[in-house]
């Protein structure tokens, strides 16, 4: 989905010393760290939309993960692509009882 939108996906399930980032990508001149949340259609437990599961504590953790990813790339001697901004997006995926995606929501610059 993101590649079709013109993104360059740099890393998936990226491990850092602080945890894991779901997706790291380049959207134009923005380095973007993406958290993906999945929920079941009609679920009675949890937030009404998967994107709402990323609260203040998770946001702090994602910022730390982003800094850690950049530091890890530099320490490993990997060249980072040119970027002029850093952004944090959240993607929410809702699946039905059959496991098929029934809804998709992408919050750009979510926090």
What's the gist of this structure?
By secondary structure, this protein is an alpha+beta fold. It is built from one helix and five strands, in the order E-E-E-H-E-E.
Strands across the major sheet, in which order?
1-2-3-4-5
Major beta-sheet overview: 5 strands, mixed
Quickly give the CATH architecture: 3-Layer(aba) Sandwich
Radius of gyration: 15 Å
Kindly state the mean pLDDT as a whole number?
94
* Number of structural domains: 1
How is the CATH topology named? Answer: Trna Endonuclease, Chain: A, domain 1
Structural class: alpha+beta
> Which regions have little confidence, pLDDT < 50, spanning 5+ residues?
none
| Termini gap | 21 Å
CATH top level is Alpha Beta
How many helix segments?
Answer: 1
Which word captures the global form? globular
Kindly estimate the percentage of residues that lie in beta strands according to DSSP.
Answer: 35-45%
- Count every beta strand, where a strand is a DSSP E run of 2 or more residues: 5
- N-to-C series of helices and strands: EEEHEE
Helix content: 10-25%
């Amino acid at each position: 989905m993101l590649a079709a939108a013109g993104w360059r996906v740099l890393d998936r399930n990226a491990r850092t010393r602080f945890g894991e980032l779901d997706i790291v990508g380049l959207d134009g001149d923005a380095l973007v760290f993406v958290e993906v949340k999945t929920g079941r259609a009609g679920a009675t437990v949890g937030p009404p939309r998967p994107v709402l599961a990323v609260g203040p504590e998770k946001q702090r953790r994602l910022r730390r993960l982003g800094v850690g990813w950049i530091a890890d790339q530099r320490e490993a001697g990997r060249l980072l692509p040119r970027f002029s901004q850093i952004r944090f997006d959240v993607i929410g995926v809702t699946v039905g009882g059959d496991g098929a995606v029934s809804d998709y929501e992408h919050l750009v610059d979510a926090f």
